[in-house]
Design a protein that fits this description.
With about 240 residues, the protein is an alpha+beta fold. It has six helices and eleven strands. The strands form three sheets. Strands 1, 2, 3, 4, 5, 6 and 7 form a seven-stranded mixed beta sheet that branches. The chain has a two-stranded antiparallel ribbon with strand order 8-9. A two-stranded antiparallel ribbon has the order 10-11.
Length: about 240
């Protein structure tokens, strides 16, 4: 399936016709990444100069999975992420153009996996903490539609997942320092963790293992680790 395949299936001339008897189904994606060790969201800008989530009207004849992959690729040039269906947002006034429902997803990606391929004239990496201040890159801005609500909902889901699964593997490099693993938890959960207790718990669970490699990017080389299981697995991490 190519980028053009799904678009060509839609004749959207009358898509916003108020006489339509059913709402318009859309799919929106919250993409979380760690950029400079800050939790960030990948956003676009629309014609009204508002920041929005990557999204599009759902194309018929294709699965939600195919629609997700197509939107992700066309809008951001990211081709692979961890993804999970989040929630359906359906408030009547969520889109001024007409009655839409949003089947939302959230996704996780290690930042190095897409920095070299995205078009930064279209895509913005925005700190999650900037959303509440309404200032992005120190400029007053607006988040379109109900996308800020969707992002906050996705953030809460991510926090819950972090506490009882190994989902951190999908927002980290494949090899990492123990300090980087702890930073992921502290950054997303917005709290400090006792280093000794955290690492003791992680080691006891057996969810990571040494790679027998060293990170020599600093003056103090450190052991590198990796997750034992590449699949999402339940653990009582915290």
């Amino acid at each position: 399936m190519t980028k053009e395949t799904l678009i060509s299936q839609n004749n959207q001339t009358d898509i916003w016709n108020q006489n339509l008897s059913i709402p318009i189904p859309t799919l929106d994606i919250v993409i979380f990444t760690l950029y400079r060790w800050e939790l960030c969201v990948v956003l676009l800008k629309n014609e009204n100069n508002e920041f929005t989530l990557p999204g599009w009207i759902i194309s018929s004849g294709y699965s939600l999975e195919e629609n997700f992959d197509n939107i992700l690729d066309r809008k951001t040039w990211i081709t692979w992420v961890y993804k999970e269906q989040l929630y359906t947002f359906w408030e009547l006034n969520r889109d001024k153009r007409g009655h839409t429902i949003s089947i939302s997803y959230y996704a996780l990606v290690w930042v190095d996996n897409f920095l070299s391929v995205v078009d930064f004239t279209k895509v913005e990496i925005v700190k999650y903490t900037d959303l509440d201040t309404k200032k992005i890159w120190n400029k007053e801005t607006k988040i379109g539609y109900d996308h800020e609500e969707i992002i906050h909902y996705a953030n809460q889901r991510l926090k819950w997942k972090l506490e009882y699964t190994n989902i951190a593997k999908d927002i980290l490099a494949s090899n990492f320092r123990l300090s980087q693993l702890q930073s992921v938890y502290e950054t997303i959960l917005c709290k400090e963790l006792d280093k000794r207790n955290f690492l003791k718990k992680i080691m006891k669970l057996g969810i990571i293992k040494e790679t027998w490699k060293l990170d020599k990017s600093t003056n103090r080389p450190a052991k590198l680790y990796e997750f034992v299981d590449n699949n999402l697995t339940n653990y009582e991490v915290l």
